[in-house]
Design brief:
By secondary structure, this protein is mainly alpha-helical. It is about 85% helix and about 0% strand. It has helices spanning about 5-20, 25-35, 40-60, 65-90, 95-105. The radius of gyration is 14 Å and the shape is globular. The N and C termini lie far apart (about 35 Å).
């Protein structure tokens, strides 16, 4: 693997860690950095799509005070996300697993 690929891989890994720890804006920044290195990198492009999906829903989640409502909303959105993933291209397991942990923890 060349230095260029290592850097993109490191940024993808860092973004996944940030997603798991519920730091979506920072994860998005890491993915944007990876995109600036390799604009056509399929894992980066698809991971950004996943991230944008959840960023769009984050404010709604934060606005729900009732834990039950939050859980219901997240479960519903996870099902929507599964369909979204199937439409946007091949699954990126690293990012999928990070969002799985983000949503269900």
């Amino acid at each position: 693997m060349d230095k260029h690929s290592d850097n993109v891989h490191d940024l993808l890994q860092r973004a996944a860690e940030l997603i798991v720890s519920h730091h979506l804006p920072e994860a998005n920044q890491e993915l944007e950095r990876a995109l600036s290195i390799d604009f056509d990198h399929e894992e980066v492009v698809t991971s950004l799509k996943y991230s944008n999906f959840w960023n769009d829903r984050q404010q709604r989640v934060e606005g729900l005070a009732d834990p039950f409502e939050r859980g219901e909303y997240l479960l519903t959105q996870w099902n929507v996300f599964q369909g979204f993933v199937d439409r946007v291209g091949p699954r990126i397991e690293l990012t999928m697993n990070a969002f799985r942990q983000h949503v269900f923890r």
